[in-house]
Amino acid sequence: MPNLRVDEKACTGCGVCLESCPFGALTLEGELARIGDKCNDCGACVSSCPSEALILERPKDRRPAVDLSSYKDVWIVVEYEKKGVSHVALELLGKGRELADKLGSRLAAVVLGESVSRLTDELFAHGADLAYIVEHPSLREYRTDPFVETAAHLVRKYKPEIVLMGATTTGRDFAGALATEIGTGLTADCTGLEIDAATRNLIQTRPAFGGNIMAQIVCKRHRPQMATVRPKVMELPSRRDGRKGQVVKDDVALNEESFMTKVLEFVQEEGMTVNLADANVIVSGGRGLQDPANFKVVEELARVLGGAVGASRAAVDAGWIPYPHQVGQTGKTVRPKLYIACGISGAIQHLAGMQTSDIIVAINKDPDAPIFKVAAYGIVADLFKVVPLLTEKFKKRLGR
Amino acid sequence: MHAIVCIKQVPETPSVGIDPKTNTLIREGIPSIINPFDLYAIEEALLMKDKFGGKVTVVTMGPPQAVEALKEALAMGCDETLFLCDKGFAGSDTWATSYALSKAIEAKAGPYNVIFCGKQAIDGDTAQVGPGVARRLGIPQLTYVCKVREVNLEAKRIVVERLLESGKEVVESKLPALITVVKDINKPRFKKLMGIRKATQAQIPALKPSDIGCEEDNTGLAGSPTEVVRIFTPEPRKGGQVIEGEPEEACDVLVQKLMEAKFL
Question: Using a CB-CB distance cutoff of 8 angstroms, which residues of chain B are in contact with residue A386?
């Protein structure tokens, strides 16, 4: 039995709430909304009701409250690679700067690794006021336990108000463990972040149900407020070389013996770029390609555009292309500037993984294919004619 | 060998569920299914049972109808179930969910070698519950696993491949560990006749917070640090133009438009 209830006096039986329920748990019975077995108290319906007849009372949390005012500053946990600071970390410095300015607090970058001091100038140039650096041999490559142990130590010592990181595989692995370790709320894969001026709460907006619903989430009684943020959503801040900041080096006593995992090797994905999360351009192929060999048509266009190759579930399940390329509900969620769907019909599961791309182009023989409903530009034609033509034309225009 | 699988019942994404008039999702009568990623978790646990013998315990938390997900898991060949179903659990966020699941495992599951979860659920898409459970149980977490390379129960050692953005990371870990799996790892089996019979006969009691030693105010809405304050439907993305004409001309128009966008 859920906590949600219907105020029968206020309910007008309008039925608006039925549509808002992701679980199909609401029905109308004799002019009144009825809450069914499927309800799990998610609260999606509450704000949909025009007459405020749906009530979800939060039972009072009687645990001792955290002193919120002792938490200050906005932190970005920085991912990096050999080349330098990751793109999403720079994006977060941009957003973090904006949040810190609103709160009148400092923006700090947190970098953990074996030898990472070289990165600080880059972080200051992109808006950080200070950088917390911890260097230790156990932090050479990312592993959950030493990284979480170190970060938890920093959080307990310096008490940030907000902690953000990229919603990458590493970011999500880390954030889920860190939030549990320090006992605070965490919101996954946010696409919007703003400060509620009255309460200083961070309003975290995120898609759920494959982007069919947007939820705004707050963490009122716990600090820090933690969120992972979807890459490529926040704007890259402009770079100001020579901008200075403060470096805070901290030590943590890590005991390698106590860590239960060891990274044996990293196998780079073979062949062309598969890193869909970083790609500005993705060219995807689906069932319309008819044969695995035909993926080369898609690859060729991706290569000319400097993009990555994606695929629909149908193409992956048929064994035409490996799973790491799959875009959609059971694959990856991507947000490139340009997404070109070739021979993909556009099932809702596929759309869930790519519909927030900036520009969607669809090439499909079937004029009724649902992909055209989300495509900024569509060409109804045989992809085997159109895609090679596009490759040729872009080659000329881009001089590649 | 004892493997535990944490699963979630989710609404199936409707394949043709858009109301053409209002352009909103049709939700009535949506079937509930086991979260697709969790099917791979179940299969991976069953593969371990096939190899080493032993049993598989499947755990879920949800409204009364979520018992169906457990029955389906039994029908696939799982042996035991733990069903967290009570008003006190309802409305849990990922923090409270991982708390409840870990308490249930500690209180009721007995010793185990490995816990499997799907990498994330397709409704909430958070990928946070698996890491939360591992942390609370004090065992290592291995997320986004696409292959189990080696398992040695005596030596309490496992080697897995993790599917990351730019490649695969090979990690060795001590057992017990919690593993979250991606789709590529296996092909889930169908329900077995024997299993279906077992599932039909299964008596699955609902556990409440006090049954599994949950501290007061740590579960459900009260125990959840995060709170949903507003839900809205995003503006449906509008389709743009279909570029008419012969492929040659259509391509010229498209190339021109995309070049104007300046990011190429």
Answer: 247, 250-251
